[in-house]
């Protein structure tokens, strides 16, 4: 009986001792655990790849112990990819729990993309992001002008160009969906040409009417996109570019900005009117005219 009692007592004690030993040797944080360490677990990374990353960054002591503990905790197939910040020494078990739940430990940064921003504008909004390659963003967003939906986004400071493009184009699909390219091009012009919602629909009707009758669009909003300068000069209207709506009839080959929903609505729902001309006076009020002669009078009256 005494032998049996001793056995019952010794097994729990031995188990506790072994558990403590395993904890200290394999699962406790390394002595050289780095503080404020940011790591990135890539999408699709295997448990072994994650363990190697953590070991190489001195976040765990033993790769095998990490893998075994992850499997025993049923977190092996639940690792969430993303960027993780470890501000202080953390045990392997705590790391397993965090990567299994997607507890990144870092606050995202708010990026506000105003309506009418073009892709170059957006690229400049990510200054200070460690992994963001501005040139790569511009190159990979070619052909996506107009499809990067202007909105408020939350990105981690380690966001890369592909992630930003993917998030903004995905948002475009959610908010806009399928849209004719010509309508999107027109929306981008309207976005830059007028800010008032009602004026936008009238201007949309005017511009679609000009295309229908074979008249050049003659909109100034294209020139900052062509020259990358805010100021527009008389010489700009002579620039030989397919985006120059004074030299070439019809719509330019692509959007000149990323329009918001109001401009898209105006492009899709133009308002019919007797007008063929318009201008914005010094107070940004839109002045409409039926004929070119009437338009010249408006220029004389409101712009000189």
The biggest sheet, with number of strands, parallel, antiparallel or mixed sense and barrel status, is:
2 strands, antiparallel
Outline: elongated
Low-confidence stretches: 3-11, 13-18
The Rg value, from CA coordinates, equals 30 Å
Number of helices: 12
**Total DSSP E strands:** 6
Oligomer classification: single chain
* SSE-based structural type: mainly alpha
Could you walk me through the main structural features you see in this protein, from its secondary elements to its overall organization?
This protein is mainly α. Helix content is 45%, strand content 9%. The chain has a two-stranded antiparallel sheet with strand order 1-2. Strands 3-4 form a two-stranded antiparallel ribbon. A two-stranded antiparallel ribbon has the order 5-6. β5 and β6 (286-289) form a beta hairpin. The radius of gyration is 30 Å and the shape is elongated. The model is unreliable at 3-11 and 13-18 (pLDDT under 50).
């Amino acid at each position: 009986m005494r032998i049996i009692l001793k056995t019952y007592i010794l097994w729990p004690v031995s188990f506790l001792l072994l558990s403590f030993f395993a904890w200290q040797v394999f699962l406790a944080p390394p002595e050289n655990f780095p503080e404020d360490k940011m790591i990135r677990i890539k999408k699709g990374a295997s448990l072994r790849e994650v363990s190697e990353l953590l070991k190489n960054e001195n976040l765990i002591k033993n790769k095998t112990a990490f893998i075994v503990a992850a499997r025993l905790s049923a977190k092996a197939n639940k690792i969430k990819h993303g960027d993780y910040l470890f501000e202080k020494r953390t045990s392997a078990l705590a790391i397993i729990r965090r990567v299994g739940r997607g507890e990144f430990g870092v606050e995202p940064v708010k990026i506000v993309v105003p309506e009418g921003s073009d892709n170059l504008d957006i690229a400049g909004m990510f200054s200070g992001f460690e992994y963001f390659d501005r040139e790569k963003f511009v190159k990979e967003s070619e052909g996506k002008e107009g499809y990067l939906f202007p909105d408020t986004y939350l990105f981690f400071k380690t966001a890369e160009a592909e992630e930003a493009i993917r998030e903004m184009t995905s948002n475009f699909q959610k908010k806009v969906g399928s849209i004719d390219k010509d309508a999107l091009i027109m929306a981008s012009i309207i976005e830059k040409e007028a800010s008032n919602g009602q004026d936008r629909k009238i201007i949309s009707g005017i511009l679609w009417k000009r295309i229908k009758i074979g008249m050049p669009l003659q909109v100034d909003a294209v020139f900052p996109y062509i020259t990358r300068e805010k100021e527009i000069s008389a010489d700009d209207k002579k620039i030989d570019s397919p985006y120059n709506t004074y030299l070439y009839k019809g719509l330019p080959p692509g959007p000149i900005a990323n329009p918001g929903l109001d401009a898209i609505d105006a492009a899709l729902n133009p308002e019919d009117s007797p007008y063929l001309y318009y201008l914005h006076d010094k107070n940004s009020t839109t002045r409409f005219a039926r004929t070119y002669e009437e338009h010249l009078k408006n220029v004389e009256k409101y712009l000189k």
